[in-house]
Amino acid sequence: MERRNDHEILLDVRDLRTYFFTEDGVVKAVDRVSFQVRRGEVLGLVGESGCGKSVTSLSIMRLIAPPGRILSGEVLFDGVDLLRLPEPEMVRLRGSRISMIFQQPVSCLNPVFKVGDQIAEVFQAHEGLSRAEGWRRAIDLLRMVGIPDPERRAHSYPHELSGGMAQRVMIAMALALGPELLIADEPTTAMDVTIQAQILDLMRGLQRRLNTSIILITHDMGIVAEMCDRVAVMYAGQIVEEADMRTLFANPQHPYTRGLLGSIPVMGVVKPRLETIPGTVPNLIDLPPGCRFAPRCRARLENQARLGNRCLEENPPLFRTEPGHSVRCWLYA
């Protein structure tokens, strides 16, 4: 992976491995993942369900619970390795300098407390504010994220909010202390397209206003095209391609990335049928010995004479094919 000037880099994940030790075997959920996030940048972490995106984000936050375990690697945040930080310091860091928006916002809010209390608690815990001052700041935040009549809504319980409002509350909580890094895990899951567009517009506006770096976790390439500066594509616990957004869409190089983009309907373009990726995602307990995409890869079959059995026998490293563009595929060796 291409390294950048240290002063540009806010987050530097190096060779991260997070496994789950289950009765059925070892699940290699995140297997030697490396990437960087610049200051003020939006990085899209893309891939289908089960590829390791969410586990990567939880590893960064150090929220992996048993039977999961972070085995090795470094997560350098502003030069400090989060994996070696004492737990009390990590607790202070969460919410203040690094925040996360989880999937399913309603289930992440406490059902027995008013949303104003839950936002105010952030200020009370991290800044020692009084309840009254915390409430004032909470109402200001609800207003900032576009919730109408925030004074009244602050007294609502989570079940009284729509999905879009609950997500705005989660964004308000995440941005309460002006974090330098925001991790958004599928922030628009199960929302209709109108609310989805509003949430994305809100995040984009706040990111520009506060210069917050964002890791946006999604499987929706349309959201990636709209929101992201750079993209890292994950498959079966590994990053298989990384490039800036425009380059990735104009010149996808990994066969999996090409399959993802080929399966998207394009307005105004008539296709006889949408492209599909044959086969199924490998079991993370029993991974193939070679390239993890090889059993599903048409490009491997089309280049059999040149590649031989290498794809089935050796897992490729990331090859740099052009400045800022890396791909994990033997076609580019």
- How many strands, what sense, and barrel or not for the largest sheet? 8 strands, mixed
CATH class of the largest domain: Alpha Beta
Number of domains: 2
Assembly of the depicted chains: single chain
Kindly report the spatial arrangement of strands forming the biggest sheet: 6-7-8-3-9-10-12-11
Q: How many distinct helices?
A: 14
First-to-last CA distance: 14 Å
Order of helices and strands: EEEHEEHEHHHHHEHEHEEHHHHHEE
**Structural class by sheet pairing and helices:** alpha/beta
Q: Strand fraction band?
A: 15-25%
Total number of β-strand segments?
12
CATH superfamily (homologous) name of the largest domain = P-loop containing nucleotide triphosphate hydrolases
Rounded radius of gyration (Å): 21 Å
Question: What would a concise description of this structure say?
Answer:
With 333 residues, the chain is α/β, with parallel strands linked by helices. The protein is built from 14 helices and twelve strands.
